[in-house]
Amino acid sequence: MKLTMSQALVKFLDNQYVSFDGVETKFVDGIFGIFGHGCVVGLGQALEQGGHSLKFYQGHNEQGMAHAAMAFAKQSRRRRIIACTSSIGPGALNMVTACGTATANRIPLLVLPGDTFACRQPDPVLQQIEQPANYSITANDAFKAVCKYWDRVVRPEQLMTAAINAMRVLTDPAETGAVCLAMPQDVEGEAFDYPDYFLQKRVWYLDRRIPTEREIVKAAEMIKAAKKPLLVIGGGVTYSEAWDTAKAFSEKYGIPIGETQAGKGNIPWDYPLNLGGIGVTGGAAANALAKKTDLVISVGSRLTDFTTASKWGFQNPEVKMLSINICPFDAFKMDSVSVIADAKLALEAIDKALAGDYTASWGDAIKEAKDSYTAEVDRNYSVELPGALSQTRALGEINKAIAPDSIAVGSAGSLPGCLQRLWRSTVPGTYHVEYGFSCMGYEVCGALGIKLAEPDKEVYTMCGDGSFVMLHSELYTAVMEGAKINVMLFDNQGWGCIENLQNNQGTDTFGTRFCARNPETGMLDGDLVLIDFAKIAEGYGCKAYTVETVEQLKAALEDSKRQTVPCLFDIKVAHKSMSDGYDAWWRVGVAEVSTSPRVQAAYEDLQENIRKARLY
Hints:
By secondary structure, the protein is of the alpha/beta class. The protein folds into three domains: 2-205, 3-Layer(aba) Sandwich (Rossmann fold); 213-369, Rossmann fold (3-Layer(aba) Sandwich); 382-493 and 530-572, Rossmann fold. The protein is 37% helix and 18% strand. It has a six-stranded parallel sheet with strand order 5-4-6-7-9-8, with helices on both faces. Strands 14-13-12-15-16-17 form a six-stranded parallel sheet, with helices on both faces. A six-stranded parallel sheet has the order 19-18-20-21-23-22, with helices on both faces. α1 crosses α2, α11 (243-253) runs parallel beside α15 (343-354) and α17 runs parallel beside α24. The radius of gyration is 25 Å and the shape is globular. 52% of the residues are buried.
């Protein structure tokens, strides 16, 4: 078929499918776009011409729309995507942050930025970056550091290998992440006789990777030799849909569970062996047992510093690491013995090898830790402050008021900590926190992507005022799409999470509260600059609520259930009313030399904790 490169790309994307456990799903739902001279008459023309089933979604900030696309793929368990297109220059570079977010989280994201002219005749074209030492470098080379596959299509026939390799990476559970196909704007309109077989329906199989017998024998030996093993449930359990398998394995062998941000919500919070979040943003129960465990069984976790408490959380000198992961890069972390396999198949095979002939020796420690921390969460949910609303109380009221199948969303600031420590999930797939990159601005944009993926579910995104100000562009898109999302905006007048980190390491508050410049001191320590976020939302056409009390929050939550437009809750919470940490350490750089005794003490504390942490 004689088609332009862009027309062929649209037809190709429209015919891609994935198969998981025998269920076939159309992979590409549509394309987000902000048209500019780099894409409007190329890919834009191909989309407008029709003859395909791809939906076009109008973005309003390239980073925002790409975050929405990533959230769509994450909520779809990596089996559906929305591609993203932009113009060259600033439009393209805006998507680099979202690509970093997707790659860090192992989520498929396809970006199709316009590029400069392959023929170079009109150069320098509008928005072109010229590098005198290498004329082939353009703004799109910036994607190389954050993408799992990168290509530039400089001839129309190159699309075939570029598109096949893009799909290879996007549909590989071990290698997936962001993929960039840079598209020079002249090539987008150039034609080629594409063979029919390139454009026909193509099915990519997400086959479960089978563990080897050697891996299973070794894993079973390690578990049998352990007295106090601990299961760490990560995102691999989510994508493998292995929550029932993990729960049954835990119950059969008496092994307690700690949840990562990506793995939280798979196991009901009230399951007796589920100790909740683990690590820096985890709770007291999981962290207490983590210090005593002699075998960490990591299932589908990247073992980030927040999960391992900077490799400090597992204090038993005899502790060993067993890592089940589809991705070899993750499976070997922290000197783990690895099982490189699908989470569900691996747990089933280990169970068969154990044959029920094992019981962990935790005694009453699990119940004691669970009961104590349940009471602590209850306390956080009932905090009373004179004349103010605490963040933990507001979160508790939201948790209790919404339907069990509603989806809770978060990404950055203090709210992911409160969510991992305190949020009570009972239905798999209802806890969606982006914490692989902890990208501020994901919250509102991500909520739109989640709503597009699951239109029949209520979506509640927990967003700080700092994140909202940074990026909420796709709230406008949500209004246009009739996508009712609920933005729970916690306004504490600053970047409270980083202020806490700053203060805890001996530095006074500096640059982390939203204050006016003080003419007397010349510093940003004047009066707080207060914002009426409800009015901002009303300007977009949303239903908005100003909340300063528990009663107002309860009334707003009930009223919002009757609304059909996006809702924003401007929740004014007390300064420093978020949850505390629970005996976990996070390694950050502290000044080795300082005039402050508090900073000096923080540096000494850093050195002491480094000595307690594992070396790799």
